[in-house]
Write a structure and sequence with these properties.
Radius of gyration: 40 Å
Helix content: 40-55%
């Protein structure tokens, strides 16, 4: 570079000058200032120091690098004051020793190579970086007469390097969070698989404890309530070392938990407890004697969580996780994972108990006659009047048996009013067809209880194959119905969690942009129990511009959510670093490909339209780039609709996708709509909603607000669907306000 060549020329110039300055002293360089005039224009800072360290000459660039307004100000300041004017730093961030400065080394006769030095001006706090070189100039006797210093400013390069490092760190954190979420989901899925592998909940809980070690803890202990003494009893202990397991069992035998402490307290309150750091004071307060304290210390406990096992409002145990690793302290994220795992375990235990109850009911049904577990009855084929009812009828419904057989309308009046017509018609249909039937319905017991019953009907025939009687077996299925309703509640909770996660991947609300009216719509496909892959975002880049993004990630569920989070974070991080729209999508493309490689998964791609918005009092200018996404539509104030932007390639597929930026100007009254392909891909009897129909709808929105435009487009698409949509839809409308 020319500035570097000028800096190196200073060495030669100073050497020639001082080779002739034996008798002229310090004024030699000043008297020959004309010969150094050219060095004043050099971009690099240049100074000449006397053996005392005082400055003999400096150019303007050197004065600026040292935080002085001019050469005169620098030269008039004593060297001791100059050094107090700024602080020196190494690239590592550590202070730079003054004695190691190249100039100091050159005055000592050492020809010092270039060294990177950071200068922070004390008064302003400004930080600048330079490569500093120094060369000694000797007299005829070999003594150092002067040292020539060159400061090559590399501040811009250092800042650019730091920005790249910050972006990489942001991407690393995003990948780490995505990977952590994926691992947690896989771990919970494995936990659910283990819990569902057997109805022996004691066995499955033991497997769950082993699964938690060492993934979540070094120790995992599961306690269940023993209903007799009311204190928790240790079900299982898991540790990598079998000797440690035996030690823990012996410790519990010798020192059982005390009421109101630790595990017993968590079970009693139903609230989890987390001990971020277990210190010696905590051990002392828990120990029952000195020997107990010594044993607790030998376990080297560092951090712990105690999570209640609660299902359907009943707490019947607790899971304890303990970490012994130095520096490993449980935090909020660990607590969330532990509570999720405990909830699944508790539901599995409770479901196993309910299932065992259902099995027992089924066994009673199989031994119907011997155990009288159901109502066995027979009715007349012509009148449906009961001719026989077993003893179980009194126990199940509470009515005297005589009423069953004496009153011809008894049973029809006991069937729930909402089910009566359906039940009685089925009885008649069975007699007419001669085929066995089954039906579930509600009936009212003598005490007013509402029971769910199931009838198994069989038609008996006479010798002429005419219906002779209707026989039935009536089973109380209220317990199973309770389980079904609880399962429906569980599905509803899962759908709620999916909706909550979906909301977390979208802006909680749109920002306010002066002079811009805006609205957004999002509608997930399906029944709402899966996270969709569509997303949008609108945010301030903090550089006087606004960024808008509309994207569609491949797939649904947890993986799509992780990929959506990565895409949104990467777009925001790149935008905040002032990257151009094309560079933002290139950065996202690289992040997707790295995620694909690290996750060892294929086809991790998405489509995105990204726009950078610069608004003024007269117009709004948008720089738009599309990566395989439907191009935005612009509605002009006169009703004209046009497609804007240049089609680009999918992101995450190839290393360098073809992307091209386009500029769009929106005048007052103009609107632009970004959307996902779920808008145009809606079908009715094989016909697509399509881009042409979408443009027609948008063209009818003249004079509407952004909210009205988004609402009309959404309603038009939804009304067009004949069935449930197969894809999510997302819409973002920005309108330049007419009165600006």
């Amino acid at each position: 570079m020319p500035a570097q060549r000028g800096g190196e020329a200073a060495y030669a110039a100073a050497a020639r000058e001082h080779a002739r300055s034996d008798s002229e002293g310090r004024n030699a360089l000043v008297d020959k200032a004309d010969e150094f005039e050219i060095l004043g224009a050099v971009a690099d800072g240049i100074t000449v120091q006397e053996p005392t360290g005082a400055l003999a000459w400096a150019n303007e660039a050197a004065a600026r690098a040292m935080g002085f307004p001019s050469v005169a100000a620098l030269m008039s300041t004593p060297i001791s004051e100059v050094m107090r004017h700024f602080e020196l730093f190494q690239e590592s961030g550590e202070p730079f020793p003054i004695e190691r400065l190249p100039g100091r080394r050159a005055l000592a006769g050492v020809d010092e190579p270039g060294t990177v030095v950071g200068f922070r001006v004390v008064e302003t706090g400004e930080m600048r970086w330079s490569i500093v070189k120094a060369k000694p100039v000797f007299d005829d006797d070999g003594r150092v007469k002067y040292a020539v210093n060159i400061f090559h400013d590399i501040t811009d390069r250092k800042r650019a390097d730091q920005q790249r490092l910050d972006l990489l760190e942001g991407e690393r954190k995003a990948r780490s969070q995505a990977e952590s979420s994926r691992e947690n989901l896989e771990f919970l899925a494995e936990t659910s698989r283990v819990l569902g592998s057997s109805l022996d909940y004691r066995k499955t809980l033991s497997h769950v404890a082993q699964l938690a070690v060492p993934r979540m803890a070094d120790w995992c202990v599961i306690d269940l309530i023993d209903e007799q003494p009311g204190l928790p009893q240790q079900l299982t202990v898991a540790h990598a070392d079998p000797e440690r397991v035996a030690m823990a069992r012996e410790l519990r035998r010798r020192y059982p938990p005390r009421e109101g402490e630790g595990t017993a307290r968590v079970i009693a309150t139903g609230e989890p407890e987390i001990y971020h750091r277990i210190d010696d004071d905590m051990l002392r307060s828990s120990a029952q004697d000195e020997e107990h304290l010594a044993l607790l210390r030998s376990l080297e406990l560092r951090s712990a969580m105690v999570i209640p096992l609660t299902a359907r409002g009943r707490t019947f145990g607790a899971i304890t996780y303990v970490s012994c690793k130095p520096g490993k302290e449980y935090g909020p994220e660990d607590l969330v994972l532990a509570e999720d795992m405990a909830h699944r375990a508790a539901m599995a235990v409770d479901n196993a108990r309910l299932f065992q109850e259902a099995q027992q009911a089924a066994e009673r049904h199989r031994s119907l006659i011997q155990t009288v577990d159901a109502i066995v009855w027979e009715g007349d084929a012509d009148t449906l009047r009961f001719t026989f009812v077993s003893q179980r009828a009194r126990a199940m419904l509470g009515y005297p048996l005589s009423r069953w057989t004496s009153d011809p309308d008894f049973w029809s009046e006991r069937v729930h009013a909402d089910d009566r017509e359906r039940v009685m018609q089925l009885y008649k249909d069975a007699l007419e067809t001669g085929q066995d039937q089954e039906i579930e319905y509600r009936a009212i017991a003598a005490d007013g209880r509402e029971l769910w019953l199931r009838d198994f009907l069989h038609v008996t025939k006479d010798v002429n194959w005419k219906p002779r009687a209707l026989r039935g077996l009536t089973v109380d299925i209220s317990g199973r119905k309770v389980v079904e309703m609880r399962l429906q509640e569980s599905n509803a909770r899962f759908a709620y969690l999916a909706r909550t996660l979906q909301k977390s991947l979208l802006p909680p609300k749109l920002p306010t942009i002066p002079g811009i009216d805006m609205a957004a719509r999002y509608r997930a496909a399906g029944k709402g129990n899966e996270v969709g892959g569509d997303f949008y975002d609108l945010f301030d880049t903090e550089a006087g511009e606004w960024a808008a993004a509309m994207g569609d990630v491949r797939g649904k569920g947890a993986k799509a959510a992780a990929l959506t989070g990565l895409a949104r974070h990467t777009i925001r991080a790149a935008a905040m670093h002032g990257q151009s729209p094309e560079a933002v999508l290139s950065t996202l493309n690289a992040a997707l490909r790295r995620h694909e490689e690290e996750a060892e998964e294929s086809a991790q791609f998405c489509t995105v339209t990204y726009a950078l918005i610069k608004e003024s009092s007269e117009e709004a200018r948008l720089r738009i780039v599309s990566g395989g996404h439907p191009l935005p539509l612009v509605l002009r104030a006169d009703g004209t609709v046009e497609e804007v932007g240049v089609p680009g390639m999918l992101l995450g597929v190839v290393p360098d996708p073809e992307l091209q930026e386009a500029e769009v100007v929106l005048n007052p009254g103009d609107s632009i709509m970004l959307y996902t392909d779920g808008v145009t891909d809606g079908r009715r009897e094989g016909e697509l909603f399509g881009e042409q129909r979408l443009q027609a709808v948008l063209g009818s929105c003249i004079g509407m607000t952004a909210e009205e435009i988004a609402d009309l487009v959404e309603r038009s698409v939804v009304d067009f669907w004949s069935d449930e949509p197969l894809d999510d839809i997302a819409i973002l409308v920005l309108k330049v306000c007419p009165a600006r």
